[in-house]
Specification:
single chain, 473 residues, c-terminal autoproteolytic domain of nucleoporin nup98, seven-stranded antiparallel beta sheet, seven-stranded mixed beta sheet, 16 strands, magnesium
């Protein structure tokens, strides 16, 4: 994979300062699936070109990371194939490793030049492009680039065969280098419409960081969010909501004077705030986050000193590893570390480690469980673990009509989504079986026709009912 960046800024060799890579040296960097090399084919005062060459090692790419099992399937096929290694997310990962300072817009030696737009010419000789050259123009032209995307024929000797799915890309424009690199960092995998790694919640943060200042106003932001986040609807929706919230600034009032418009909080933030408020109201000190995922709620719980003991439980070891990294377990002070524990546990089985807590949270969890397995979850959580307070959130399927681009469930892994009546019936059944009372609350904008986007229930143990911890089992 090859990417070249050229400039005719005077002196052109200032490009080396902006990239923090010396034009007189060839440098190599170990990166995912191979080795990245940076070198300068030309470096004069009039024109300077930096090249990033990623040499992919298919054996290294197929080798599992430390702690991972070897992937299933035809093992030899991962080594012996004719797969073309064209610009993809592998190249953007190498960019993040090699041009880290330049992506952030930092240069110790040319700080004044970091914020200066300079003439740039960028070439990618082989770029996979789902949708053809037209999509390339739709993505790059609104950002100030002059786009030259030439389809690569399947075989020049046989023109009747037509074009391949690859294009030769040439971009020219006058932009800040950091802007240009962040455009490439986001849009190369968008054009490929594929990523070589699992896309999790932290990818939303990456997208918004790299898209700061340009993604919110891009006419193709929905396409960009969907493809960058590997088609995961819930993540794309979260990214778009956060972009909308960040962009809600001044508009013209009726009197002709600009006034600041209240910024809408994204639903993911409103949901978390509602859960934290319910927890605080319960007076809990020892808290379970059941189905904690990569630790979004755990981060807030840990920051609140009222919670003396916090346990995050999830069936996925990958999610727990992401949570551990998100919370920076390796740098956490001992006193903080003593307050939190992560455990692998399936919520449809009895687990004595979850007993005796003041409160438990199931935030956007129940809809990921097959409906036939819900009674097992109820017995394990409300019957066996039996915390004094249980807080549950789940989507309101009636609100889905307000999402124009939504077709089906809000997340590909949702087994069901309830109406308000169905959620109320479920909470009533759980209360009757396990000795709880429940309070239902809306989360998000309460539409008069279809209700709020999220439903929340707060279950409190009914102390007047003499039920044991195994009630209803």
């Amino acid at each position: 994979m090859l990417l070249t960046i050229s400039t005719t800024h005077t002196p052109a060799t200032d490009l080396g300062y902006l990239l923090v890579k010396h034009p007189d040296r060839v440098q190599s960097f170990a990166t995912t699936g191979g080795t990245a090399y940076v070198f300068y084919p030309e470096a004069t005062a009039d024109r300077c070109t930096a090249a990033l060459l990623l040499d992919v090692d298919p054996v290294e790419l197929a080798r599992p990371s430390k702690g991972q099992k070897s992937p299933d399937g035809f093992s030899l096929g991962r080594y012996v194939n004719d797969r073309p290694y064209a610009a993809s997310s592998l190249l953007t990962v190498a960019m993040g490793r090699v041009f880290r300072s330049a992506l952030k817009g930092a240069s110790r030696d040319r700080a004044d030049l970091v914020d200066t737009a300079i003439p740039l010419e960028i070439e990618v000789p082989a770029l996979p492009c789902r949708g053809g050259a037209d999509v390339v123009g739709r993505l790059f032209a609104p950002l100030g680039w002059t786009v030259d995307a030439v389809p690569v024929p399947l075989d020049p000797a046989f023109p009747d065969w037509g074009d391949s799915r690859y294009v030769r890309l040439r971009l020219t424009g006058t932009l800040r280098l950091a802007e240009a690199l962040n455009h490439l960092y986001v849009l190369l995998p968008v054009l490929d419409d594929a990523k070589h790694y699992w896309v999790a919640e932290d990818e939303v943060d990456k997208l918004l960081r790299a898209g700061d200042g340009w993604l919110g106003g891009h006419p193709e932001r929905e396409l960009i969010a969907r493809r960058y986040l590997a088609g995961r609807r819930s993540l794309a929706q979260s990214a778009l909501e956060r972009l909308q919230a960040a962009d809600g600034v001044a508009e013209e009032a009726d009197d002709g004077h600009p006034e600041e418009v209240e910024r809408k909080k994204p639903l993911v933030t409103l949901r978390k705030e509602a859960v934290l408020a319910a927890l605080a109201g319960s007076g809990a000190s020892r808290v379970l986050d059941l189905g904690c995922g990569p630790g979004a709620l755990l981060e807030d719980l840990l920051a609140d000193r009222r919670y003396a003991e916090i346990v995050g439980a999830d069936v996925s070891s990958v999610s727990l590893a992401l949570a551990e990294r998100r919370l920076r377990f390796d740098r956490m002070p001992d006193r903080q570390r003593a307050r939190i524990t992560l455990i692998q546990s399936a919520l449809t089985y009895h687990d004595d480690r979850l007993k005796g807590f003041d409160a438990a949270v199931l935030m956007e969890v129940v809809e990921h469980v097959d409906e036939v397995r819900l009674p097992a979850l109820e017995r394990a959580v409300f019957g066996h673990a039996a915390p004094r307070t249980v807080i549950v959130t789940t989507p309101n399927v009636e609100y889905n009509v307000r999402y124009e681009s939504l077709d089906g469930h809000r997340h590909d892994d949702h087994r069901f989504e309830w109406t308000r009546a169905e959620f109320a019936a479920w909470t009533a059944r759980v209360c009757a079986a396990y000795g709880y009372t429940a309070e239902l609350r809306p989360v998000g904008e309460d539409d008069p026709q279809v209700g709020s986007p999220t439903q929340l229930a707060i279950f409190h143990q009914d102390t007047t009912t003499a039920l044991t911890g195994e009630a209803g089992a």
